[in-house]
Amino acid sequence: MNIGIVGLGLIGGSLAIDLRSCGHTILGVSRRRETCQQAVGRGIVDAASTDLESMVAADVVFLCTPLRAISSTVEHLLPILPPTTVITDVGSVKASVVKTIAPQWQNFVGGHPMAGTAESGLDAALSGLFVDRPYVLTPIDSTPVEAVERVTSIIAPLQCRIYHCTPEDHDRAVSWISHLPVMVSASLIAACMGEASPIVLKLAQQLASSGFRDTSRVGGGNPELGVMMAMYNQETLLSSLYAYRNQLDQVIQHIEQKDWGALERQLKQTQQTRPQFL
Amino acid sequence: MNIGIVGLGLIGGSLAIDLRSCGHTILGVSRRRETCQQAVGRGIVDAASTDLESMVAADVVFLCTPLRAISSTVEHLLPILPPTTVITDVGSVKASVVKTIAPQWQNFVGGHPMAGTAESGLDAALSGLFVDRPYVLTPIDSTPVEAVERVTSIIAPLQCRIYHCTPEDHDRAVSWISHLPVMVSASLIAACMGEASPIVLKLAQQLASSGFRDTSRVGGGNPELGVMMAMYNQETLLSSLYAYRNQLDQVIQHIEQKDWGALERQLKQTQQTRPQFL
Description:
2 copies of one chain form a homodimer.
Chain A: E1 2-6, H1 10-21, E2 25-29, H2 33-41, E3 47-49, E4 60-63, H3 67-77, E5 86-89, H4 95-101, E6 108-109, E7 111-113, E8 134-137, H5 145-155, E9 161-164, H6 167-193, H7 198-207, H8 210-216, H9 223-232, H10 234-256, H11 260-273
Parallel strand pairs in A: 1-2, 1-4, 2-3, 4-5, 5-6, 8-9
Antiparallel strand pairs in A: 7-8
Helix pairs in contact in A: 6-10, 9-10
């Protein structure tokens, strides 16, 4: 099959590598000419262009740009494509993307391959990135079954774990397990940095070990990604944050009131339920 | 030197193993006869007893019981010891321990070796546990220099990183990097478990990966330890929690007001400052 990949970063590049090795013909698009040359030179794609016009030959197009570029990409892409072309995307938020594209293009299937590394860009692309990772598809009532089947037949050989759900359920789920942790974790770092005594701050830095390292990791990640999550999943993330603040207030109240029994019940419950997420 | 170790769990047992291999004579005390037999049988101690009376022969006594047992242990121990005996402890909170013991025993040096594993008890004891780990000593104005020097000379060969600070500064530092993260992390798990839709909850559990795993790790730990932190470091932990809630409220406000610039500045700052804690 001819597969178009718009955006040759970590995800687009890694998809290209794996799908090409499955026997597909890969047509890449990147804004930067050097990235196109690099992708062809490394054998990641069969051909690459800075021009979306090249997508006219694709049976399926994967949109792999950052979330903020999806809407303008779609605006330029749709007039070019024959109506049989299936479009899918890899954005980490789904409701806003589906709301943008689905009314304009029937053969659209929202997608979210949940894989990544700390790196980004084509240099970071690698084969096998999606093995055993979740790949969520978010078809809606109007999505043709054939479009979902075509995307599924392409991604299944990546050995990812495929899930189907509504765009809204996807956004709520990732809000809990991905977007909320970023805000919770960043607030921890910010609170520690607010320590007024230089002696205590220095000591805290010297004594910090795996507990602090793990709890603060995602809060010390890419700021742009954090802002994207908040921007494109604003309402859902806010309701997660409100629920979180309520839980925090409960813990604070138990400690204020020295209600050690209640605190212990709370901590026992979190200890017992955490394994359900692992 | 004759070194007494009261409490043969993970920390007491591991101290015994390393200090014995340094050539000291190790006298252990445990409430349980089987633990005493096991400690002697495995060559962890030279002798062990369920009776604190045996501590009369020790030059230095390490109190390695859980925090809640320290006060009653001291009450029984002090009448037995000659006044030259140096006492030190390994409790993870210092101000309350120092306040309990220092007025009754001049040769007392508060201590906190910051090492551990997910396991507990003598079975988990191992050699080398303290290598390259922080070991905080918290002498106060009235602590004799000789007592601090004696404890230092014993622990330095463990190859730990020794720090000195006031009990209060210790408690503030560990509140930031150890106790606060537990409450922050536990509240995250509790918030996620509160999701009302079984479909979304199930999906969140299926999609959770390293970000959630790391951020939730310490919140899914030993509930008793969490309660101990809150109980013995209550006021300090509360002020950390209040500062944290303020930071969280700022993040919420940025997102409510779609102030993406402010959110990005915040996340850039946490990204930049986190390495200072690693």
